[in-house]
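Narrative of activities, Objective 1.

The group set out to show that a structural description can be obtained from nothing but a protein's sequence at a throughput compatible with the screening campaign. Below is one input-output pair from the validation batch, recorded exactly as produced.
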Amino acid sequence: MPLAISTELLLGGVGSLGAAAAVYAYGAMSHGSQLFGRTLIAPARPGELALTFDDGPNPAWTPRLLDTLERHNVRATFFLVGSYAAKEAALVRRIAESGHLIGNHSWSHPNMAVTGMRKVRDELRRTSEALEQMIGSPVRFFRPPFGGRRPGALRAAREMGMTPVMWNAMTGDWKESSSDRIAERLMGKIDANGRRGSASNVVLHDGSNRGPHADRGPSVAASDLLIERYKSTHQFVTLDKWQ
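Output recorded for this entry:
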């Protein structure tokens, strides 16, 4: 009997640890979780759509994306990687001067759910300082790389004056070669958000965490398709309109 009780206690302890790990993983990586603190996703405005672009600037594809947005008179939000931005100051300024909102996407794109807090703070501070020097205005929004976060990371961003941002419409555009498939999958998510009474916070990628020169032609073309599809039914907004 003592052995049986010990085994039950052990199994119970293992089960508790497993449950705690599952809860942590949900809080750290689920795009919709608010367990570790509030993040901006999308308000109850089903007629609004925010296009957001991660992992740039990309010297080959970001300019083409800017041309697409300008042709449609649409403004978007760009979450920039600091180490890339530091090498593309003129392109960063072009993004800002075109009326788009610029956000902090860290310096080197680490997963902040498992990154030490000293590095987290350095990544955020270094990126904001570099971007603000280029564009001449404060950086007020932060998207954690991979969506990975923990309470300390979100708290650090807020202490630096930034609102943490997640999303409610994303597909694997970074690994998809068909712009039609990217757009179709996102349209399904946007339409579902609308049926739930929510605006859509759409993530696409004009860059890559693996390097600044990724081919993002399919994502740029998908952006054009999305704008064509929704320009008569939705208002395209930057994330600052949701605060």
